[in-house]
Every structure is written in structure tokens, then in C-alpha cells.
Design goal:
Helix content is about 30%, strand content about 20%. The radius of gyration is 22 Å and the shape is globular.
Amino acid sequence: MSQLTRRGLLKAGVAAGVLSATGMPLMAAPKKGGRLRLGLAGANTSDSWDGRTHSDSFMIMCAHGAVFDCLTEVGADGQLKGELAESWEASADAKTWTFKLRKGVTFHSGKAFGADDVIASLEMHTAEGAKSAAKPIVSAIAEMKKVSDHEIQMTLEAGNADFPFLLSDYHILMFPAGEIDEAIASGNGTGLYKVESFDPGVRFVGKRVDSHYKDGEAGFFDELEVIAINDASARMNALMTGQVDAVNRVDVKTEALLKANPNVNIFEVTGNQHYTFPMQTGLAPFDDLNVRKALKHAINREELVDKILLGHGKVGNDHPIGPANQYFAVDLEQNAYDVDKAKFYMKEAGLTELNVDLSAANAAFAGAIDAAQLYQASAKAAGININVVQEPDDGYWSNVWLKKPWCACYWSGRATEDWMFSTAYETGVPWNDSGWENARFQELLLTARAELDSGKRKDMYTEMQMLMSAEGGTVVPMYANYVDAHSTKLANTGTIGNVFQMDSSRLMERWWFA
């Protein structure tokens, strides 16, 4: 089964969630040519081609969306399809998965792609000392067996209905076995575009590969130029003046100016992106559940949606499962702004006043500093004094996130509930940015992962969302739509993916010049 829809998965008894996509008017047939210029936020001087380290949009788009491939891919229409894996099938208990790999695929260096490369690329994530956000996915594989040069069998520790989805994770890029360090240094992948030049945190230039296996289906630009423009105002100005052809993370405050420009179109989709304030629950005062509850009732979520997102999103409820997920708990009791409740939980914690630092930079998400200051203002009425520490944008993800006790953060969400939970909330995983641990939550996580009955899965994921909302260490005030913009010179199929921003990070592959 090389392509899976949600209906097809359920018919097969594999209850993995699939995102819907937002439609746009159908465009003319694709045509090749031209140099695409992108202005992207999310670049850092520490950037590299090592997929294990990717955490922000610049490298996710350049690596996952241009230079490298994964085994599977979530298409713009929400279907799971093969990328370097041509097809796959599972045992009845979803524990053993057999993948047939594409033949005739080569790395940019000319080396043929095969099963040895898959094994080596996956082993990267569990190697001693490796710090990979995909470690929870790969460590669940008990055994990898090379059946032939183009077939591999993976046996999991326990059944996982979502496993093919997880292999589309943007960290799990395919590298050439025996040449991984060199491939990281040069950007040697199997993707549609070969690295011409790369200046970390500044610029990437790529050139389309001849005779690629995706020819005719993707990769319509002759060349790519991706420019790091972390400042939102500069990014919007670059698009409006024609210096670039598309930008990510539109500053919604400039929406009216963009709409007034006849050469610019805004494209917006509702996905699972959410903005967060994770607290390190192993440190005081965040180790006190009552303090966490007080902070959750001290934030005015509606105000943040109105003033930071300007309505381009929805109120969050302190868990990471979004409105585009299959098992989103729509009827869960909402954590609302309530000064009296915040004071009550402060008293339960033995406090009449609380003084805490909140680190923020707009690198975390557009408007993060303003959001932190709004939080500061709303919490003051409850006796909570939030000191907003404005951190530098450059190096935010390496110097602040996972380092400071309380900070601003964003997550693009994941296509399935287990994928999201296991990436950021499973005990011991590298990206558990709150360090929150709950025995019942962990029990449900493992049970739901192997459960093929959709109704039972829904009940378990609902309880997990409830546990996180009530006891977790992350304040999730809002879900943010993906709002990006492009020149009217660009065209697409009419369907925009919503797994990540910029057509699920695949704009460079999927779009073309009209």
C-alpha cells in the first residue's frame, strides 16, 4: 500500500490520523524553469545539514524540502505516500513492517541508494551521544533486517499503527552509509536539489538534479536561493519590493499592506501549529502543581489570539493536540483566564506573591515578546510578577530553549497524536522541554500506540489531553494558522499542505512559476 488515506488506514485496521488540506483555485499545469528566491525566518549561524539537529523552518525547508529525502511523505492532500520507500506492509499486530525501496535512486555524489543507507541513517539517531529529536521514533525499532538491497524489514518493540507516518519526520533524512560525516558537511542527499553553496544562518543556493525519480511530479525550478531574513519587517518588505518570491511567517500586523499589493498573495491554512510557554517542572517553583495551575489561569488566551494572531488562530488548552488532529478533544473543559482561580492555587502553594522570569524572543514565534508582556500584564492581578527577559534571536534554540527554566516556544504539531506526544512529552525524550512526567500518561501513550481500535484510541488520547491540560508543565495559549505569502508569479496545484508552514515545508518541490 504505497498511498494511504485516513479511510484506507481505518479500513485496514491501522488507525493513524491524517491531516486535511486547504484548497485553493486549481492552477495551470506545472512548467519548469526559473530561480526561486525565498526569504525565510528561522535561520541560525549554528545551522548544518545534520537532520538530527533541525528545529526551525530554514533548515527544515532546505533539507527536508529540497536536498534530502525521507522514506515516506505526507502529501499536500493529506495522503501518506512513499518517498524513498516505494511501498510497505505490516504484520497484523503492526509490529513488523516491511519496506520496499525505490530502485535507481542515487545520492548527489553518484552513490546508489539502498537498504544499507536506511539502516545507517536510522542508527544515527540512537548512536551514543547523539542528541536527536527523532530518537524516540528510532529507539522503538528492536531490529532492522536487510532483506535485499532494496527491501528492509523493521521489527518494533511494540506495535505502532502510525509507524509509516513517523518515518516522514523531517529529522529522519537518508544519508549514504559509510559517508555520513562527509554528507553532513557537504549536503549530500537524494533530494531534487543539489547544494551549490551554503552559508549557515545566511544563505543556501541549490540547483535541480537531472533525471531525478520525482521528475514530472515535483521540482520545477531550475535553481533555488534561500535567504535568511529573521526580521519580520525586513522579510515582508523583501516580498513587497520583489527581492524575493515568497516568505514564511507573515507578520499579521502587515496583512493589510500585503493585501493592498497587487503582486502579492497571502496563503493561510489551519494546522496544528501551537505557541507555548514550557516550564521546567523539575525546577522550583514549577515543580509545584499548584503553581502551574495558577499560571495557566493567569493568562488571557482570547487577548493573545486577538492581539498577537489578529484572529488567525484559536485558543489553546495547555496540550499539543490541535484542531486538525483526528482525536482532538473538542469538549475538554477549557482552562480560562480567572484571577480568583489563579489566587486560589497560589494560596494552595502557600504563596501570596510569585516572582518568575520568562525568557522570550521573536525567534520563538512572531510576536513572542509582545505575548510575554501581555501575559505579564494579565498575571499581575493575581499577584504573579513575570519578569520578561528579552533574549537574542540568534542562538535562541541552542542557548535558551531547553536551557532556561521558563521560555517561549512554538511547535508545528504533528500529523498524528502519538507522533506529537512521543516527540515532546514521552519520559526521557530529548525534546521534552517541560520535563513533565506522569505515570498514567506514559501508560496510556504506550497502550494507545499499539491499539488498532479507533474508538479505544480516541478515549485514551482524550484522557491524555485532559491530563496534560490539568497537570502538565506547558502553557499552550493558542493555535496559530500558518500564514505565508508569495508573489503572484508563483503557482501551485490548488492544494496546500498543513503539516508545516510553506506547504508542509515542500514549497520548493511542489510550486512553479506560472
